[in-house]
């Protein structure tokens, strides 16, 4: 049964790969079926398979001008929006810079003050590593906000 299923799958894949090729099924003296593209010998019959259905690729839509009723923003409204965006980004930058300064103070160049619950050196090292990651993340945020603000010019 497995062999028949595998043979059928091969038959289907061969038919897809070579739509114009002939496929033959041959049965030997032991009753084993084999499929191939040549039908030589006794017990071989040409298999009649239906043709492949093909469809043309969809055409790409052309991008043209915006319709006349497409909303447009006048210059003064756009400038107002840009100024609001710049202010929001500046406020975020100030907050992130304050956070970075606080984290740098806690981190103390890789030697933060020990806390009461850190009698175990491993806990101290873990907190130090977490502070280092927080400082790096805050610095990346500051850099990203500065790039964003510089991109508005």
From TrEMBL:
Keywords, A to Z, come to: Coiled coil, Signal
Is the keyword Coiled coil assigned to this protein? yes
Stored Pfam families: DUF4124
Q: Where is the signal peptide?
A: 1-19
- Stretches assigned to coiled coil: 86-148
UniProt protein name: DUF4124 domain-containing protein
Which residue stretches does the UniProt record annotate as biased composition, category Basic and acidic residues?
A: 71-85
What residue stretches are annotated with the DUF4124 domain?
17-61
Transmembrane region(s): none
Q: Which organism is it from?
A: Solimicrobium silvestre
Annotated region Disordered: the residues are 58-85
Q: Does the keyword Transport apply?
A: no
Q: State the superkingdom.
A: Bacteria
């Amino acid at each position: 049964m497995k062999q028949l299923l595998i043979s059928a799958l091969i038959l289907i894949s061969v038919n897809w790969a070579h739509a114009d090729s002939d496929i033959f099924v041959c049965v030997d003296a032991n009753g084993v079926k084999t499929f191939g593209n040549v039908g030589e010998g006794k017990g071989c019959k040409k298999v009649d398979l239906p043709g492949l259905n093909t469809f043309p690729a969809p055409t790409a839509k052309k991008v043209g001008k915006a319709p006349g009723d497409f909303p447009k923003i006048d210059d003064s409204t756009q400038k107002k929006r840009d100024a609001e965006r710049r202010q929001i980004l500046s406020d975020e930058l100030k907050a992130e810079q304050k956070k970075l300064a606080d984290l740098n103070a806690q981190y103390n160049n890789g030697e933060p003050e020990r806390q009461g619950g850190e009698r175990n050196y491993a806990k101290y090292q873990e907190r130090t590593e977490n502070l280092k990651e927080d400082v790096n993340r805050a610095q990346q945020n500051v850099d990203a906000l500065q790039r964003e603000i510089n991109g508005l010019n």
